[in-house]
Amino acid sequence: MTTPALLPLSGRRIPPLNLGPPSFPHHRATLRLSEKFILLLILSAFITLCFGAFFFLPDSSKHKRFDLGLEDVLIPHVDAGKGAKNPGVFLIHGPDEHRHREEEERLRNKIRADHEKALEEAKEKLRKSKEEIRAEIQTEKNKMMKHAWDNYRTYGWGHNELRPIARKGHSTNIFGSSQMGATIVDALDTLYIMGLHDEFLDGQRWIEDNLDFSVNSEVSVFEVNIRFIGGLLAAYYLSGEEIFKIKAVQLAEKLLPAFNTPTGIPWAMVNLKSGVGRNWGWASAGSSILAEFGTLHMEFVHLSYLTGDLVYYKKVMHIRKLLQQMDRPNGLYPNYLNPRTGRWGQYHTSVGGLGDSFYEYLLKAWLMSDKTDHEARKMYDDAIEAIEKHLIKKSRGGLVFIGEWKNGHLEKKMGHLACFAGGMFALGADGSRKDKAGHYLELGAEIARTCHESYDRTALKLGPESFKFDGAVEAVAVRQAEKYYILRPEVIETYWYLWRFTHDPRYRQWGWEAALAIEKYCRVSGGFSGVKDVYSSTPTHDDVQQSFFLAETLKYLYLLFSGDDLLPLDHWVFNTEAHPLPVLHLANITLSGNPAVR
Ligand code: DMJ
């Protein structure tokens, strides 16, 4: 068995912001694109001003040219009365040499003074250090995060989430019965990326002193994996602080009993103390959920990589092997699989809830392995081809959507969650079969457009939980129970990936629209809240600030308005909760291909 080496990241108390390629810890981006853009604006304003000085001069076709000796100066040929009312125009009557020279001198002085003034102003702006300019931009870009974090800090500290209106802590059954500070762990890397170091250290201290997994609490294996293990690993990779790695491994050990099933397909929930697992009561015939047991790969491979213990790697590779052996109706993966019998439950396939991140992790397993995990790429390509064939349709109005397959019937309904797929298709374009990169980029762009329409066709300009394509109804929620928006990230996530790959300004425009809508309708004095009906112009709040709002929504918005050198995609792969994990350049060992572990 080959023990993978640790990444060369050293522990530092307050590390410098280093968010380029992880393999170059001391690489320091100079100015990011947005900052360069502002400098460029200042310079272009200055140049415009200089040109403006000349444009203020009257049209040369109406002028007489006077020989002024050393230089030619243009003198307007106008009547006295008119020019007198126009301070930008000066008057000449007849060939009075002396007056000409005076006017010439005045004009020259004026131009010189204007130039000098403009130059001084530009210099003044440039005299602000890069740090000051950066700080100004940062403050603006951080404002939403600060508001969400500060209020959680004040009213919900240590609780899993925040009730921003009641101003107290909040939790749901996915986190069990304990206060595990889900928002702190989920938000850590966003704070770090945004340069909010005091807040980051505050969170780190809480984790050091309070985060304890020896609790009698039944948690969701999937949620705890993507938010806690993913969040802790990302915080470790970004900051180099050992504590995050230690906590991630402690927690992962507590999740392992969930895999003690007849098939090795894990239970959906596990009690962190007793290790007893079970499935959700609502899941088809006691099944485990595809998007849950299929969304462990990234974190578990990193755990093996960091600890040298292959137990985690073996667990997720076993799941993969089992899935490869199963029949797939129409090439599609059903969402439900019984962990006792190893048989599919209900034949329901979706790229939204219950299925979504399984497909995402096939692609990301390949990317994370430095594109050496060909098995994962093949599974992704096969799955996407079947999805395109059976689930992706175009509406009468020309909107491309992803429906849901239920027992041989296509339901023309797309969930907000499925909107992440626009970004996934774009991310998977490079390396696609038969060189269909252009096709998948286009498909991603079409999904982004459809999801933008689902936002645009509401009163609040925020998207509903799911929307239909039924006759005249397109990209609109019909049932009251589907009209809510709970601060979800998927649409902004897709905008960000499409922005990175195309730099089409529409994605920043759409992201900006969403940010304004969140500010206007979801911001309350105690934080940010979801809304119950996006079609009602007077929003009713649900009074929950979801932890993924800080982990994902605000992070993707921030990245959308940052340069591409911030977490470049050829070095970092984002888990499904937007926690960035580095590509593993394993040189002579690849976890999937290493014969020693087969
Ligand atoms: C997040 O917790 C993750 O993105 C997950 O994969 C599904 N959706 C929520 C946010 O909507």
Summarize this structure as a short list of keywords or feature phrases.
598 residues, mainly alpha, three-stranded antiparallel sheet, binds 1-deoxymannojirimycin
Would you write up a description of this structure?
With 598 residues, this protein is mostly helical. It contains 18 helices and 21 strands. The chain has helices spanning 33-55, 80-85, 97-127, 130-155, 182-193, 197-210, 221-239, 242-255, 290-293, 297-307, 311-325, 356-368, 374-390, 421-429, 437-456, 490-502, 505-522, 547-560; strands at residues 63-67, 72-76, 161-163, 168-170, 218-220, 269-271, 277-278, 288-289, 336-337, 348-349, 392-394, 400-402, 404-406, 409-411, 413-415, 466-470, 473-476, 523-524, 527-528, 572-574, 580-582. The protein has a three-stranded antiparallel beta sheet with strand order 5-6-7. The chain binds 1-deoxymannojirimycin. Residues 357, 417, 488-489, 548, 552, 576-577 line the site of 1-deoxymannojirimycin. 1-deoxymannojirimycin binds next to α18.
β-strand amount: 5-15%
Radius of gyration: 29 Å
How many angstroms does the end-to-end distance come to? 10 Å
Q: What gross morphology would you assign?
A: globular
Largest sheet geometry: 3 strands, antiparallel
- Residue stretches low in confidence (pLDDT < 50, at least 5 long) are 1-17, 23-39, 47-93, 592-598
Helix share bin = 40-55%
Strands in their spatial order, largest beta sheet: 5-6-7
Please, how many helices? 18
Chain-averaged pLDDT: 86
